[in-house]
Amino acid sequence: MSEKSRQRWILLAIFVLFSILLSVFVYAAYIANDGHIIYVLDDTYIHMAMAKNIVEYGVFGITPYRVSATSSSPFWTLLLALLYGIFGKSEWLPLFLNYLSGLGAI
């Protein structure tokens, strides 16, 4: 087995382990919160509200009434708004984006 092939298998194993561990933690949190996804930090909810307002009202703000620079990460909010526009609003989409970001970081 070549060194490059060995490295690919190790990376794949890390991806699988990361995915399994994340799935276990998310499932445990989901069950502990009576079937709801709960985010610890309020930033997630701020980004979700802004993404919803972009999709529904075309306003980059925390409320649908005026533009406000509330987001600490405008690109993340726009990416979330794009996914909301494609798939609809979901409390799972920020978690999915974070999962993909975690895979990218690995």
What does this structure look like?
It contains four helices and no strands. It has helices at 3-32, 42-57, 74-87, 93-105. It is elongated, with a radius of gyration of 17 Å.
Summarize the structure.
The protein is mostly helical and 106 residues long. It has helices at 3-32, 42-57, 74-87, 93-105.
CA radius of gyration is: 17 Å
Number of DSSP helical runs: 4
**What structural class do the secondary elements suggest?**
mainly alpha
Low-confidence parts:
none
C-alpha termini separation:
23 Å
What form results from the Cα inertia axes?
A: elongated
> What level of helicity do the residues show?
55-70%
What is the residue-averaged pLDDT? Answer: 93
Total number of β-strand segments? 0
Q: The biggest beta sheet, please?
A: none
Order of helices and strands: HHHH
